[in-house]
Amino acid sequence: MTALSEYTTLRLGGPARTFRVAGTTDELVAAVAGADAAGEPVLVLGGGSNLVVSDAGFPGTVVLVDSKGVSFEEAGTDDAGEPVVLLRAEAGVEWDPLVERVVAEGLSGLEFLSGIPGRVGSTPIQNVGAYGQDVSQTIREVLVHDRRTGERRRMTNAECGFSYRDSVFKGDDRHVVCEVVFALRRSKLSRPVAYAEVARTLGAEAGARVPLEQARETVLGLRRGKGMVLDPADPDTRSAGSFFTNPVVTAEEFAAVRERAAARLGADVQVPGHPDARGDVKLSAAWLIDRAGFTKGYGDGPARISGKHSLALTNPGGATTEDLLELAREVRAGVEEAFGVRLVNEPVMVGVSL
């Protein structure tokens, strides 16, 4: 049997009872439909960068998506009068090489998503994002196989129900992502810089547009410094990226967090929070984790917090999935006790839960 640890960036996960590789969209649909007809549980696997798989493995059919089709289509201009190009990418296309190609082609819209591991098919599921940019800003439509009806259909951006690190696809395996269509601008300049850390590193004002290559290299540098770019020679990058999402709380809840932080850390402590249009506040999970006492490198067991970033839980070597989950539960409980905020995992759990 195939060990799923060979296909996850955490290098964790037991065996798959049945393992299939789908090199085309037709093969992907056929493999999933065949398993469904046989009453088999199905796990659709991409880059394995956002999965935590049980040590017991998966008691059904795992389908590795390896479709590689990419095409570009001119599509007129946008409201600002800039040329629009539609990028069609099949679900098995590796994400960062695609971003690199898009930047080289002079197309803006994905540049701040550089360095993220995984494949195209997972991006709409999680509404993948980083540094002020997420895929929902550029996704035009998603081609899916509907397991309930057996049909393929195209879902518009609105039908995808995107929100922060979420979509209608997350937590519901009805739809198998086959292809994603992105609407990009033909421009040598990035989308406006929306993240303070990126702006500081670039020496630019928030809202500025910078050369695409400069935006990409800046983000890659920031991610490498946090251990968020996979490096086989660096066990500290053996993670699922950010393990917890940044909590979004009400204004009243934010006030309570500030009170707890002041009592714990001193009256002059500044709790980072970013208000949104609805009046809610997005907190920094990394800040909460660190201030709750779980500093970079924390962990006496085989699973540890990354030495480069408090949000990444790593398997330096020899850990099991249960080791990782024990650490995650400890961190979650510690943050909740310290600040009254319950963290939510970002990776998809397969056969396990927190």
From TrEMBL:
GO terms for biological process: cell division; cell wall organization; peptidoglycan biosynthetic process; regulation of cell shape. The keyword Cell wall biogenesis/degradation applies. Keywords: Cell cycle, Cell division, Cell shape, Cell wall biogenesis/degradation, Cytoplasm, FAD, Flavoprotein, NADP, Oxidoreductase, Peptidoglycan synthesis. It catalyses: UDP-N-acetyl-alpha-D-muramate + NADP(+) = UDP-N-acetyl-3-O-(1-carboxyvinyl)-alpha-D-glucosamine + NADPH + H(+). InterPro entries: FAD-bd_PCMH (IPR016166), FAD-bd_PCMH-like_sf (IPR036318), FAD-bd_PCMH_sub1 (IPR016167), FAD-bd_PCMH_sub2 (IPR016169), MurB (IPR003170), MurB_C (IPR011601), MurB_C_sf (IPR036635), Oxid_FAD_bind_N (IPR006094). PROSITE patterns: FAD_PCMH. Residues 11-187 form the FAD-binding PCMH-type domain. SUPFAM superfamilies: FAD-binding/transporter-associated domain-like, Uridine diphospho-N-Acetylenolpyruvylglucosamine reductase, MurB, C-terminal domain. GO terms for molecular function: FAD binding; UDP-N-acetylmuramate dehydrogenase activity. It is found in: Cytoplasm. It comes from the Bacteria. The keyword NADP applies. The active site is at residues 165, 242, 346. Cell wall formation. Belongs to the MurB family. PANTHER family: UDP-N-ACETYLENOLPYRUVOYLGLUCOSAMINE REDUCTASE (PTHR21071). This is UDP-N-acetylenolpyruvoylglucosamine reductase. It comes from Nocardiopsis alborubida.
